Prior knowledge:
The structure is a homodimer. By secondary structure, chain A is an alpha+beta fold. Chain A has one domain: Roll (Pnp Oxidase, Chain A), CATH 2.30.110.10. Helix content of chain A is 20%, strand content 45%. Chain A has four helices and twelve strands; from the N terminus they run H-E-E-E-E-E-H-E-H-H-E-E-E-E-E-E. Chain A has a seven-stranded antiparallel beta sheet, with helices on both faces. The longest helix of chain A is centred in the first third of the chain and has 14 residues, at 3-16. At the A-B interface, helix 1, strand 1, strand 4, strand 5 and helix 3 of A face helix 1, strand 1, strand 4, strand 5 and helix 3 of B.
Amino acid sequence: MSSEEQQRLLFRDAMASLPAAVNIVTTQGKAGRCGITATAVCSVTDTPPTLLVCVNRKSAMNPVFEQNGKMCINVLSHEQEEMARHFAGMTDLAMEQRFMLNGWRDGVLKQPVLQNALASLEGEIQQIQSIGTHQMYLLEIRHITIAQEGHGLIYFRRKFHATPHQELIA
Amino acid sequence: MSSEEQQRLLFRDAMASLPAAVNIVTTQGKAGRCGITATAVCSVTDTPPTLLVCVNRKSAMNPVFEQNGKMCINVLSHEQEEMARHFAGMTDLAMEQRFMLNGWRDGVLKQPVLQNALASLEGEIQQIQSIGTHQMYLLEIRHITIAQEGHGLIYFRRKFHATPHQELIA
C-alpha cells in the first residue's frame, strides 16, 4: 500500500471519530428528483443563512443538483435511520421508490421536504467548487421548517446513533 | 424585528437542531498561539485529506491562523467538555492560561495537539474564503493522531452531550 493510500485510510479512520449529523440532501426540478444521505453538511454563516454540502464527484446526482440549482437539507431525527439507509444506497430501493415512502412533501421552493425531520432547509445553490474527489456546494437558505422536538441521528465510528437524552453537566 | 433578522434567528434555531462534533482548532507559529472551540468543521475529501473550518470574521484569531498558515483540528472526547468551554470563551481563562492546562503538546507540525482527543489533525491552510460573516479555511492534513477509544462530545440544542454508548439497530 502506498503511503498516500495509508494516509487516506488514516484520514477516513479519523473522520469516523468525528460525530456527524445525518442529513438527506434532496433536489427537484427540470433535471429530475433525487437525494443522497450526507454527513458532510456544515453551517457557514447566518448572514445570509448559508450551508455547505460536499458530495462525491462520482455521484450521478451532481448534474441534477447543478441543473436544478436548488436543494433541501433535511436534518434527520433518530427515527429516520431507515430513510437514511435508503438514501445512502444501503438498501435496494430505486430512487423514485424512496420518494414514494411516507413522509415526503413538496416544500416552498418545491424541493423534497421530509416530514418530521428535525429541520428542513430549502435553498438556492450560490457556488460550486471542486475540491479533490468532491463537489462543494454553498447553499443560500430561503425557507426553513423546524420540528420542535425529537432526538438527532448521528453517525459515529461507522454506526448510527441517536443523540443522548441526557446532557452533560459541567 | 426585520424579516432578515427573523430569518437569521430561525436559521440559528435550525442549526441548533443539527448535532455537531465539538472541536478545538489551534494554531502556533510566528504570529503566536491561539485556539477556538468550533463546531463548523467538515470533511471535504480524502484525496488529498482535507478538512474545512469556518471561523467568525470578528475573531481576532483569523490573522493568527492566516499568518501561521497551519492549524490543528482536535476532535474532542466527552471528557473534554471543560476544555471546550475554556476555548469557547465561556470561562475567564486567558488564552495563554488555556494552553497551560494539562494535556497540550506540540505536534509534528508544531501545532498544539490535545492529548486524548479522539483525533488530532495537523495541516496546512490551502485556501481562505470570506463568506458572509465567516472565513472558510480549507486545511490539507499532513499528520493525524487517533485515539482508539472514547466517546465523542457533541453540541445539540445548545448543550453539550456525549455520544451514546449504544448504537441504533436498524
